[in-house]
């Protein structure tokens, strides 16, 4: 299996992230578009990223901005996010050669994506999610999104992977079910997120196990609702989850938030899974 790391806030440059990736013997870095240094205009300077990766012998995956909301009712906003997706796909097309050189060519290039819950209105006795109330408008946005992504990706080996976060809403599950009908979309299983919300997403994820293409691996705790812990510091049956990742031929991002937790996670893998 191929293991990678996230872009870490303690590392203020691509060079620092690459140096750590190489030091720990990891295969790739997931470039996070929430960071200013990995905004789209920076990623579109692909020669810089390609040269740095080639020198180090690593490759990349991409994490779209967590605020991405292609279903926003304001079309000016939703069109901006659609354009962000289109241009990110073009970046991925230029970076995919790195995967062929330093990764597994049988695995697609991953663009990771969160589902945006949208806003809710608080009533005296309940909360109403706007996307639930106006589901017809919501799902039409995803119909457009799927069609456009299929057109933009075309025959490139790129998959947009939908990640679980703090529990899929029912309207999101319906949208994801629609996306899963396309070979341009798959699932990312974030095992820490699912643990911290009582594993409520697991039945849905396992129903689409054949669509799993990517894992975010970190430990978590259901009792204290924590995640992004170093491997071995939580309550997850890590060997079971890693076994599913291997069975599904998925890459794994060791998605801790600190350098020390990442180092500890690599040590845990070496001592418990013998993968390095």
Notes on the protein architecture:
The protein is 44% helix and 20% strand. The chain has helices at 14-23, 40-43, 46-56, 75-102, 130-133, 135-153, 170-179, 191-196, 202-207, 238-247, 259-272, and strands at 3-6, 28-32, 59-63, 109-114, 120-122, 127-129, 158-163, 185-190, 212-217, 219-221, 226-229, 251-254. The strands form 3 sheets. Strands 1-2-3-4-7-8-9-12 form an 8-stranded parallel beta barrel, surrounded by 5 helices.
Characteristic terms for this protein:
two-stranded antiparallel ribbon; 44% helix; 276 residues
Distance between the termini: 10 Å
- Count of strand segments: 12
Radius of gyration: 18 Å
Structural class designation:
alpha/beta
**General form:** globular
Compute the average pLDDT.
96
Helix content: 40-55%
Continuous helix count = 11
Low-confidence stretches: none
Mind describing the biggest β-sheet? 8 strands, parallel, barrel
Spatially, the strands of the biggest sheet line up as 1-2-3-4-7-8-9-12
């Amino acid at each position: 299996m191929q293991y990678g790391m996230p872009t870490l806030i303690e590392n203020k440059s691509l060079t620092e992230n690459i140096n750590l990736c190489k030091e720990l013997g990891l295969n790739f870095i997931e470039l996070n578009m929430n960071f200013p240094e990995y905004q789209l205009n920076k990623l579109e300077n692909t020669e810089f990223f390609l040269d740095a990766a080639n020198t180090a012998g690593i490759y990349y995956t991409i994490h779209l901005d967590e605020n991405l909301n292609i279903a926003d009712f304001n079309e000016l906003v939703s069109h901006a996010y659609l354009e962000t997706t289109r241009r990110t796909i073009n970046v991925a097309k230029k970076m995919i050669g790195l995967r062929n050189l330093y990764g597994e060519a049988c695995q697609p290039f991953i663009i990771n994506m969160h589902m945006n819950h949208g806003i809710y209105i608080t009533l005296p006795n309940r909360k109403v999610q706007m996307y639930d109330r106006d589901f017809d408008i919501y799902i039409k946005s995803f119909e457009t999104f799927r069609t456009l992504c299929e057109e933009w990706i075309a025959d490139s080996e790129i998959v947009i992977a939908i990640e679980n976060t703090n529990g899929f809403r029912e309207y999101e599950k319906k949208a994801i079910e629609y996306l899963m009908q396309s070979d341009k979309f798959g699932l990312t299983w974030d095992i820490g997120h699912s643990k911290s919300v009582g594993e409520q997403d697991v039945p849905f994820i396992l129903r689409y196990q054949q669509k799993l293409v990517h894992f975010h691996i970190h430990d978590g705790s259901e009792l204290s609702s924590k995640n992004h812990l170093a491997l071995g510091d939580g309550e997850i049956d890590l060997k079971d989850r890693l076994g599913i990742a291997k069975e599904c031929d998925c890459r794994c991002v060791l998605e801790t938030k600190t350098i020390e937790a990442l180092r500890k996670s690599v040590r845990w893998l070496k001592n418990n899974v013998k993968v390095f």
